């Protein structure tokens, strides 16, 4: 699977054909389909094999005794996530991740489910932090969506223009504006 992942990182999704990949792996395209079922499933599995994914770390924090109990703690966790998400070693993955995002818009029948699952997974990880702050489930999901979508947008913009410093300032500004509103419902 690591060789599939390496191939995808080098070549991307655009025009991904199983024959050249299979040839590089020393197998056949039919064996790849037998093993994975679909090309899209293969892509999903290759992306999910990263055991250093920030999502896994955040999920671990959420389920631990160290989970933030207040807005300041949640902000610190999001700042750590931001630093981790745009670190140089994570940047190598971003073009493929954004290509997958674009493919999910252009080919919703093929890649849409993968992107929807990813977005749902992140929202499901973040929402309990907001519930812990006293928000209703609906508001917590909205806050989680806002934070996730903002991070994705800032990462995408930074990848496109290379201005990581400006994005970091924008992220801090976003947290400044949001943190004061992370109060229990009705407060």
TrEMBL record:
Xref: Pfam families: TetR_N
Top-rank lineage group of the source organism: Bacteria
Keyword Cell wall biogenesis/degradation: no
InterPro entries: Homeodomain-like_sf (IPR009057), HTH_TetR (IPR001647)
UniProt keyword annotations, A-Z: DNA-binding
Start and end residues of each HTH tetR-type domain: 10-46
UniProt KW DNA-binding keyword: yes
Protein name: TetR/AcrR family transcriptional regulator
């Amino acid at each position: 699977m690591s060789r599939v992942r390496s191939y995808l990182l080098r070549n991307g999704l655009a025009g991904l054909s199983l024959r050249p990949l299979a040839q590089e792996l020393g197998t056949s395209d039919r064996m790849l389909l037998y093993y994975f079922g679909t090309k899209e499933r293969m892509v999903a599995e290759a992306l999910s094999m990263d055991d250093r994914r920030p999502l896994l770390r955040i999920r671990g924090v959420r389920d631990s005794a160290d989970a933030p109990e207040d807005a300041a703690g949640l902000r610190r966790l999001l700042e750590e996530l931001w630093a981790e998400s745009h670190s140089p070693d994570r940047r190598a993955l971003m073009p493929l991740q954004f290509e997958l995002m674009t493919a999910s818009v252009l080919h919703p029948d093929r890649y849409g489910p993968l992107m929807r699952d990813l977005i749902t997974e992140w929202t499901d990880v973040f929402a309990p932090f907001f519930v812990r702050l006293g928000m209703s489930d609906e508001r917590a999901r909205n806050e989680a969506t806002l934070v996730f979508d903002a991070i994705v947008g800032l990462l995408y913009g930074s990848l496109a223009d290379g201005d990581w410093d400006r994005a970091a300032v924008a992220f801090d500004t976003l947290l400044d504006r949001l943190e004061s509103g992370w109060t229990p419902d009705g407060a």
